[in-house]
Amino acid sequence: MSLKQYFDVGSMNDQVNELITFYRSSIENVSFLVFVNIIIAAAGWLTQIKIANTLGKDAFGQFAFAVVIGTFLQVFIRFGLDRTLVRDLIHYPDRFSALVRASLFLRYILTIITISALLTLKLLFLQYYISWGVFLIITATAILSLDLQPVYDVRQNIKLHAIFFLFQKFFYLILIWIGIFILKDSFSILFIGSSLLISVVLYLALQHNFVMRRMKSRKESYSELANGIVWLFRNNTFIWFSAIAGLVTAMINQVILKEYCGYAELGGYAAAWQFVIAGTLLLDQVSRVGRPAVARITKSGRSKSDQIQFLIKYFSVMIVVVTPVVLFMIFSPEVVFKLLFRPEYHAAADTLPVMGIYLFLFAVGIVSSQYALSARLEKMYFHAVITGSILSILLCHVLIPANGTIGAAWALLISHGTAIIIYSLGISRHLLKQRSLYK
User: Fold this and answer.
1) Would you tell me the crossing angle of helices 24-55 and 57-78 to the nearest 10 degrees?
2) What is the distance between the alpha carbons of residues 411 and 389, in angstroms, rounded to a whole number?
3) Mean per-residue pLDDT, 190-196
4) Residues in contact with 231: Cβ distance below 8 Å, sequence separation at least 6, in sequence order
5) CA-CA-CA-CA torsion sign (127, 393, 379, 433)
6) Are 213 and 353 in contact (CB under 8 A)?
7) What is the pLDDT of residue 396?
8) How far apart are CA 372 and CA 58, in angstroms?
9) What is the pTM of this model?
């Protein structure tokens, strides 16, 4: 089908009906995920705002710092498997069980190493720098890397995984609200960290139990398991480095902001960041269904014309989903801060328009990165992300000392936006070049 035919107004109704029928399962999954996450997002938003207003700007900055460090460790432990395991399970279905077990053991090893190192640093060198509450938040965030979401996505058990996720979030939120009402002035980061760790452990236990009970009865030998781990290690090294560099691009500004301006300034930035989180929640629901579809469309035998048409539709959906949030962030930043946050946070409203533009670019970047990784364009993707991470570090040291939170927001937009543009242009060139070869 040509683009002219696809966008022909006269046949639009027939095409919509055809697409709804063909993509009924995907539409149902996205609808269910959006419904679940709207509930989670609403409850989570109110809770985060309550935490921010209860703890105060400085303590909320400590909470945000712990999440950032935990996210760095999470990416280290995941070894890029959150980006490639769906692709590998679809491209090598005969190795499904072996790949799942190998991915878990690899992450178990990295988790033990990471948490042991963190605990050692805490006890020997950072007793006063990292409190036990911060340590627990970092640990809970880090072990989320053991999530088996790719397995549920490939097995078409997305709804069940969403239910497990809903359980974890509500269990955590209930504990937090109990703590707020009972502890009152004694409510602390230590209580938050304990609640988060308990909920995450239960969430992972539910996931792993369901998957392992339905795995093939035959278990791989130790040599087969070791070979699988080595295979994943070799194939994911570039993705791993790219993921770490990508996280540096997106979040190093918060670490540098804390070092230059303190926890209070980071707390203001973290308050504004809640709106980016809300936008990414919506994008994640579409991209979660889209990731297996991208893996299938990039299998050998699929024409470049089909891939281009698929990507046009995918880009369009992501842009439509995120646009309302982006417009709200750009044109009404002060309104929401005055309604939701204490006056000490209001100055951070200036960062929202910049973050809104970033969120729009991020929507484009999700689709581009999924295609790049599924099409095994790892080196091109790696070079683009490394460029963004280096640019991010340089811009943070230039912009943050003089401009605080708004400088951190601009550093994020310019550096991550540059990386997204580079690898988006890279996949465009790849598609057009390959398409010309088939003509």
Assistant:
1) 140
2) 10
3) 92
4) 102
5) positive
6) no
7) 93
8) 40
9) 0.72
